[in-house]
Amino acid sequence: MIRLFKAIPDYEMPAYQGELYQLEVPESAVGFLIADHVPGEQVEETLLVASAEIKTGQTGRQWLQFTFNSPSGTCKGKQWLNQGTAEEAMRPYLETGIVHVKAKVEEYPVDSGNKSLTVQRVQAVHDVSGAMLLPQMPASESPSLYRDQLIGLIDQMEEPLRQIAHRVLETYWFDFSTRPAALYHHHAYIGGLLKHTACMMTIGYGICQSERSNLTLLQCIQEAEADHKNDLFQANDREMRQFAWDDSFDALYQAARSIALLNEAPRQDELLLGILLHDIGKIFEYTHLGASSDRFARLLQIETEEDQASGIALDPNGVLVGHMPYGCFVLEQALQQLAIRLPVPQYHRLMHMILSHHGKKEWGSSVTPQTTDAWYLHAIDLLDARKEKWRQTQQS
Q1: Positive or negative, the Cα torsion across 95, 76, 227, 272?
Q2: What letters, b where the CB count within 10 A reaches 16 and e where it falls short, cover 328-353?
Q3: How far apart are the first and last CA of the chain?
Q4: Phi/psi of residue 216, nearest 5 degrees
Q5: For range 198-219, the mean pLDDT
Q6: Rounded CA gap, 259 and 248, in Å?
Q7: 387 CB-side CA count, 13 A
Q8: pTM of the entire predicted model
Q9: Which of 344, 216, 320, 224 is closest to 268 using CA atoms?
């Protein structure tokens, strides 16, 4: 059962019995989690190289910068160049994409919690499966639970929106069920997008089912604020406290105010479909080892191209468009495949939710929210991201 906020009842959906939405879940594995280590500590670990770059400082000095993956999470790393060229130093990282490193845990700024690895020795590894080193969902959680919740809530929708939702999932299920929802901050693991979407749909359904939807949202915001009181009031300095407020709760209360001013009930099925589609474009914006190589060709009039990803990373082509426009493309594709023509206002409300869900243009939104459902989606997205971050903090 998914338990999120006290104001949202526990909606337990029946187990999925069909064959379309199967899950490919790798065996559980324990990996390196940098949060478990203290600055100055020496570690030796086998890691997947998600990204590797040669960086040049203002003085002309070069160093190597990495993103490493392990089943327990993602961390940053670097290697200073003391001899030889940057290209020579990079070779072990590129040989197989899997390395055994001896490194020192660093933290900058001091007491910020922003930890990384400074690599001192590295060796390419040839006898380990890279797929087993991708960040995985916490062992205490079940991907099938989130799958059952997602499908159960979609089946509550009326036609034609239910048909549209199922067509989208049928077309992109493998990618959707394996992709992370982010690179670092929340749900940054295989299956993270599935979990994030299922939890958001649960919150949205609970809000729509309540007698006073705007009050239910406000109760969730207040509970999230209480969860994050350490972020807000126990940060090391005023600047960090202000950032925590501006980055989440100020935006959440702005959404609640906007909803109150619009004074309209949410459209339940449109909100649920908007939630399903809001991050669906991340199957194109992100990639990882084992991602399907034909996902772009299934959506766009382009050739299939082999994916060269190792760990979880941004797709170099997908980032040129971004996940919001891709979400609109996916919706339009489903409508064309099903030969469904929506009323003009409904079509634009759905597109608007996808394009505005980050809330502010400076946060990446194509437009700012202007409808009740768009404000609800933006708030629910923030709420679930903060809830996940708080859960990770409690477990670390």
Answers
A1: negative
A2: bbbbebbbeeeeeeeeeeeeebbbbb
A3: 23
A4: -65, -40
A5: 96
A6: 17
A7: 21
A8: 0.84
A9: 216
